[in-house]
C-alpha cells in the first residue's frame, strides 16, 4: 500500500473526517493527525470512556452523522492511519515535492514526531473570539465553548447557577445543554437585535433545516424556563474568590449600553462567547493566501499553495454541516489530483450545493450576530486584556493615544500584549478593537510554542511517526 499516494489531513473534526473518508474511498493512503486523544473535534467531542456515559448521544443533535463517520473510519482502516495527541507546529514544503509535518506528542508536548506526505489538507477548525470586560478573569467565568467542552468531555459543569451571554448561535446549545444537565440557567443574554433576523429573513428561510434547529433550541429554553434578554450585554462580573454575580444592561440601537438599565444577576458560572475565528496558523506558515481572517480556497477547496487543500472552519466559520460538505469536496479533489487525473465536479455536486446554501446562510447570520458596536467602552483602564502578560486596557490605550501605536503589532511591541503562551489568540480581538484597527492574522514561523531542544533536533527523525 506504500506505493499509493499519501495525503496528510490535519484535524479530526467534521471536515477532517469527511475528507479522510472521501480520499480513502478513492484509493489514497491517508494519515489523519489530530491533537485530541479521540476523533470528532469539538463538535463530536465524546465523554471519556472511564466515565461510562450511558447515553452520550444526549449531548449531540447529529449523533447519527457521527456514527456514520466513525463506522466509515473502521471500514477504511486499511487505508487510514489515525495519529492522536499530535500537535502539529509546522508544515514544510520539500525542495522538490511533498511535505514534512512536524508535531509534538502528548499533553506535555515535548517529544517530536514527523510525518511525510505527498499533499496536505488543513482542517484545523476555529477557536472562540474573546472580548474582555471587568471581572472576566474571575474563576467561574469561561467561554461558551469551554462550558460545552466540559459538559461533553467530562459530563461536568462549573457551578449550579449559570448565565450564558454574548452573541452567536453557539449560545443556544450551550444554554440548553447546561439546563438539561440540571444547571439553573438564570438568563441567556444575547446582544443581537431580533430585528436583524427580520431584515435577513429571506436569506435565513432559504435554509429551513437551520431555522427548525433554532426553533427547537428556543422550545427547549422555554421548557426549562430560561429567560432570554435580547439586545443586552454583560457589563461586569462580580466576586472576590470566584464569580458571584454579573451585571447586564440593555443596548441601544447604536450598540451602547442604556443608562439605568443595569441589573445584577446572582450566578456562579458565566459562559460567554462572541463568535468564532478560523485557525489559520499552519496555513500562514505555508504561505497560503488569506481572505480577511480565513484561508482562501477555490471551488475544489484548494489553497493557492500547490498540494495544499483546506476545509471547514479554517476557510470561514459555518458549522458542522458546511464543514462536512467542504471536507468531502476537498477529499475527492485531493484523491483525483494525487492520482494524476482531473477531478469531475459532478462527483460532489450535492456537497457543492450544500456549501453554496450554507455559506449564504452563515453570511446572513454574521450580519445579525455581531458584537455590540461600542463593546470596547466596557473595558476599563484596569481591566486585564492580555492575561498571559497581564496587560491592562489602560496600557493598551496609552500605547495608542500617547505613544502613537496604530496597529496590533505596534501595541504588542510597546506593551507585550500578545507575547504570551497563547500568542495573541485570546487577546488579539480586544487589542485590535482598542487600537481601532482591523483584526489581521499574525505571521508566525511556528503554529505553537516549541521547545528549543525539539528545534535543535528537527530533521533528525527517521521516517514517519
TrEMBL record:
Domain (FAD/NAD(P)-binding) ranges: 6-317
What is the protein name given in its UniProt record? Oxidase
Q: Which Pfam families match?
A: Fer2_BFD, Pyr_redox_2
According to the UniProt entry, where is the signal peptide? Answer: none
What GO terms are given for molecular function? oxidoreductase activity
- What UniProt keywords apply to this chain's record, in alphabetical order? Oxidoreductase
- BFD-like [2Fe-2S]-binding domain mapped to chain residues: 384-433
- Entries under InterPro entries matching the protein: BFD-like_2Fe2S-bd_dom, BFD-like_2Fe2S-bd_dom_sf, FAD/NAD-bd_sf, FAD/NAD-binding_dom, Metab_Enz_Cyan_OpOx_G3PDH, Opine_Oxase_asu/HCN_bsu
Q: Does the keyword Iron-sulfur apply?
A: no
For the keyword Oxidoreductase, the answer is yes
Amino acid at each position: 500500500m506504500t506505493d499509493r499516494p499519501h495525503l496528510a489531513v490535519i484535524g479530526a473534526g467534521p471536515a477532517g473526517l469527511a475528507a479522510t473518508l472521501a480520499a480513502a474511498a478513492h484509493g489514497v493512503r491517508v494519515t489523519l493527525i489530530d491533537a485530541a486523544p479521540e476523533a470528532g473535534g469539538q463538535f463530536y467531542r465524546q465523554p471519556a470512556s472511564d466515565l461510562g456515559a450511558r447515553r452520550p448521544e444526549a449531548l449531540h443533535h447529529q449523533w447519527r452523522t457521527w456514527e456514520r463517520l466513525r463506522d466509515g473510519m473502521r471500514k477504511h482502516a486499511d487505508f487510514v492511519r489515525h495519529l492522536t495527541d499530535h500537535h502539529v507546529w509546522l508544515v514544510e514544503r520539500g525542495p522538490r515535492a511533498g511535505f514534512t509535518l512536524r508535531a509534538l506528542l502528548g499533553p506535555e508536548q515535548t517529544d517530536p514526531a514527523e510525518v511525510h506526505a505527498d499533499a496536505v489538507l488543513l482542517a484545523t477548525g476555529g477557536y472562540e473570539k474573546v472580548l474582555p470586560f471587568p471581572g472576566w478573569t474571575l474563576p467561574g467565568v469561561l467561554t461558551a465553548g469551554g462550558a460545552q467542552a466540559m459538559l461533553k468531555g467530562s459530563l461536568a459543569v462549573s457551578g449550579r447557577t449559570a448565565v450564558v451571554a454574548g452573541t452567536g448561535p453557539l449560545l443556544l446549545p450551550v444554554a440548553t445543554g447546561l439546563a438539561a444537565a440540571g444547571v439553573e440557567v438564570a438568563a441567556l443574554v444575547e446582544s443581537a437585535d431580533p430585528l436583524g433576523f427580520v431584515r435577513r429573513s429571506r436569506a435565513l428561510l432559504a435554509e429551513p433545516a437551520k431555522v427548525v434547529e433554532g426553533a427547537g433550541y428556543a422550545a427547549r429554553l422555554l421548557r426549562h424556563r430560561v429567560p432570554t434578554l435580547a439586545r443586552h450585554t454583560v457589563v461586569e462580573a462580580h466576586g472576590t474568590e470566584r464569580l458571584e454575580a454579573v451585571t447586564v444592561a440593555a443596548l441601544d440601537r447604536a450598540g451602547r449600553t442604556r443608562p439605568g438599565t443595569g441589573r445584577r444577576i446572582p450566578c456562579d458560572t458565566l459562559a460567554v462567547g462572541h463568535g468564532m475565528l478560523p485557525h489559520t496558523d499552519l496555513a500562514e506558515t505555508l504561505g497560503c493566501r488569506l481572505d480577511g481572517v480565513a484561508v482562501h480556497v477555490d471551488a475544489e477547496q484548494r489553497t493557492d499553495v500547490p498540494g495544499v487543500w483546506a476545509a471547514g472552519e479554517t476557510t470561514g466559520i459555518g458549522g458542522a454541516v458546511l464543514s462536512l460538505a467542504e471536507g468531502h469536496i476537498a477529499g475527492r479533489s485531493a484523491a483525483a489530483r494525487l492520482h494524476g487525473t482531473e477531478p469531475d465536479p459532478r462527483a460532489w455536486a450535492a456537497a457543492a450545493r450544500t456549501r453554496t446554501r450554507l455559506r449564504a446562510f452563515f453570511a446572513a447570520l454574521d450580519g445579525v450576530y455581531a458584537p455590540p458596536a461600542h463593546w470596547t467602552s466596557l473595558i476599563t483602564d484596569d481591566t486585564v486584556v492580555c492575561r498571559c502578560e497581564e496587560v491592562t486596557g489602560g496600557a493598551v490605550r496609552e500605547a495608542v493615544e500617547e505613544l502613537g501605536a496604530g496597529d496590533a503589532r505596534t501595541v504588542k511591541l510597546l506593551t507585550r500584549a500578545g507575547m504570551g503562551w497563547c500568542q495573541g489568540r485570546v487577546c488579539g480581538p480586544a487589542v485590535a478593537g482598542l487600537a481601532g484597527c482591523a483584526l489581521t492574522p499574525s505571521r508566525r514561523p511556528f503554529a505553537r510554542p516549541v521547545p528549543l531542544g525539539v528545534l535543535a533536533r528537527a530533521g533528525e527523525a527517521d521516517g514517519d511517526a
